[in-house]
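2024-03-11 09:14:02 INFO receiving multi-entity request
2024-03-11 09:14:02 INFO entity count = two
2024-03-11 09:14:03 INFO echoing inputs for audit
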Amino acid sequence: MITLFFAALLAATLLCLAFEVLPKAVLALVVAGVGLFAAVAWGVRFHHEGGGGHFVPAPVNLIEWPTLGVIIGSSIFVEIASRSGIFTWSAIRLLKTSGGDPWKLLLLLGVLTLVFSAFLNNVTAMIIVGSLTVVACKNLQMDARPYLLVEAFLTNVGGLLTLISSLPNIILGHAAGITFLNFFLIAAPYCVLASAATFLMARRLFGIRPFSDDAARLEARRRVLEFDEWQTVTDRGFFRAAWYVTGGVILLFSLQSYLPVFRSEELGLQFVAFLGATVMLVLRPKATGEALRKVEWSLVFFFVGLFILIGICGHPQVGVLDRMGQGVAWLIDHTGVFSSALLVWVTGILSGLTDNVPLAAMLAQMLPPDTAPDVWWAAIIGGNLGGNITPIGSAAIVVGVTLMKREGIKITFGGFMRTAAPFAIVQLLIGSAYVLLLRGLL
Amino acid sequence: MKERDLDEFESIFQRAIIPTIEVGRIAIPDIVVLADASETAAACGRIAQHLRDRFRSRVCVHYLKNPGDLPADDHRVVEGDPLAHLRHITDVEKPSLIIAPAPLHLEDTDDGVLGDLVDALLVATSIPTLLVRGTPDASIFQRILAKIPGGRHDLIEQFSVAFALCGAGGTIRLLHIVNEHDVQRLASALEITPEIETAGGIEDLLQAIETRMDHLLRGAIRAAQDAPFRVESDIEVGDPFVIVPQQARDFSLLIVGSQSSHEEFLSSRAYELIRRLPDVTVLAL
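2024-03-11 09:21:47 INFO inference complete, emitting structure
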C-alpha cells in the first residue's frame, strides 16, 4: 500500500512538472511535505544522526547537500564573474573573429555556446550568447533564427562537457563517483562529434554558406568591427582579476580529486565552488547583496523538495525506487550489449517529456554504485539531450525560443519539433553509438 | 524566464556597438570677413588671420562703411547697396567661410540683437558663417560646444568642423538634446498617438533616440582617440533654449547646424537660439 501511494505521488509529481501545473519549487515543497507526513504516519523510520551524534530531523539527511553546495557556490561565482565583463568581452572577441561571415559566425557562436554551457549553467550561457546573436544579426541584417536554434541545441550538448555543466551531470556524476577530469575526458569526444554533426546539419538544412562576394564580406566585416568588446568592461583591474580567478577555479575543479586536502570527501567540489564564490565576493564586496539575490533560490528549494521526495521513495520501507530499480536492472539484463544504447533513448525521451532533474535524481537512487560505466553515461547523455526535442524541453531551449519570439520570429510547438527532431535524433544516435563504444573501452 | 536578464545582456551588447564615424577633411580655401569700424570687427580680422595661417586660406575683408586696416590678402570697400553686395558674395563668390561681427547694422537706427545685415546674411546664405561676439581671439577654438541636432550626417558634418578647428589641448563637447515636444510631434506625425498614450510608449521612443545618439557620439569619441584634444559627449533631455545657454557659458565657441531645408539657411529655432546667446561666438553651419 505504502509503495503504491508513493509511486502514485511520484508519478503525479512528474506529470505536474511536465504540465507546469505549479511553480517547480512550490510543487516540490508540497509533495515533500505530503510525502514526509505520510511516511512518518506509516511508521517509516529515518536516519536521525548528524555529525557528532547530534539528532538531525529527517529531511536534513535526505537532502543531497553537496549538489546544493555546487549550485549555490557556482551561481554566486558566475554572477560576480559576469559583472567583470569576461563573458561578454570574450563573446564579442569571438564575434569579431568571424568577420561577420555567416558560416564562421555559426561555428564560432556555436563553440562559444559549448564553452559557456560547460562552465556556466545552460540558461546563462544561452542568455549571453543568444543576446549577442540577436544584436549581431540585427547589425549584420541577417536572420537570427538558425543561429538561435543551433545555439539552443548546443547548450544541451555543451551541458555534457563537464561535471558541473548541468544538474543531471552533478547528480548522476556524484552518484557514479566520476571525477571532474574523468568526466571531461570521457564527455569531450562525444561533444566534439555531436557538435560537428549539428554544425553540418545546420549548414545543410538552413543553407548557411560563407560569403561568395567580396563586397558582402567587406560590409559584414565593417559591421562586426563596430563592436567594441571593451565597452562591456567597466573596471579593467577587476576584469583581469576575474580571468585569473576563473582560470584558477576551473583548474581546481579539474584537479580537485588529485590534490591533497581538496580530494577529501569532507570538502568535495562544493568547497571549490564556494571558494571561487568567496574570492569573487572579496574582490567585489559591494556586489554581495545582489549576487546572493541572483542565486536561483526557487531552484534550490525545488531541489530540497525533490531530494526529500526521492529520498522517501528510495527508503527500504517505502520501496518505490527499489522496484523501479529492479525493472531497470531487468531491462539492462535482457537487452544485453544494447542496454546502454536503449537507456540513452529512454532517458532522452523521458527527459524531453518531463523535467530531467527528478529523472536524474531517481536514476541516481535506482542504479547501484557498481553499475557499469556505460549505463551511467547513457543516463547522463540521454538526460541532457532529451531537452532538445520540444520547445519546452529545457530551460535553455525556452530562452532560445523566447529570444526568437521577441524578434518577431514565428515558431510553433510543432514547427520547432519538426526542425529540432533531426538534430535530436542524430545527437541521440551518436550518443547511443558512443556508449556502445564506451562499453568496450571502460 | 529571465526576461530581465535578456534585456540586460541585449542592452550591454547594444552599447558595445560603436559606429565608425569618419572625420571629414575640412578645407577653408577662402574666407570673407565683413567689417565695420567696431572692435568686434577687429577681432574678426584676428580670427581670420589665425585661420589663414592654419588652413592656408585666402582672406578678403569687405569694409561695409569706411575702409580699415585689417590684415588680409585682399580688401574691398562696399559701394552701393550693402544687401546687393552681400548677395553677390553669397551667390557668386561663394567663399568657404564668412566671418562677421554681430551685431552688424545696415542702418544706425537698427537695434536688433544680430543687426539687420546679419539677419540678411543668415537668411541669404548657406555658407558657413562665424558670428563673432565681443572681442575674442584665436583661443575661442580651444573650447568648442557643438550642438548636434541628430543623425549620422549632422554629426559627421559638425564633428568634422569642430575636429578641424580645435587646437591642441582643447576640448570639444558634442551636445545632443532630446526634445520631448519634438518626439511627441514625431509620434503624432507617425500616427502612433494611441500607442504613445499607453504606458512606456513615449519613454521607449525617447530611450531609443537616446541610445542611438549615444552610439553615434561614442563613435565620434573613438574617432578622436588619437587627437591632441579631448572630445566629450553629453545627451540631455529637455528644452534646447534652456540647456544650450547653460552649457555655452563654459565654452567660447558654439557650433550649430542649420536644422533646415535647402531653401533657407537657418531654421527659425536655430536662428532664435543664436539670437538668445548675445555673448557667445557662433559658427552656423
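2024-03-11 09:21:48 INFO post-check: Chain B has a mean pLDDT of 83.
2024-03-11 09:21:48 INFO post-check: The radius of gyration of chain B is 21 Å.
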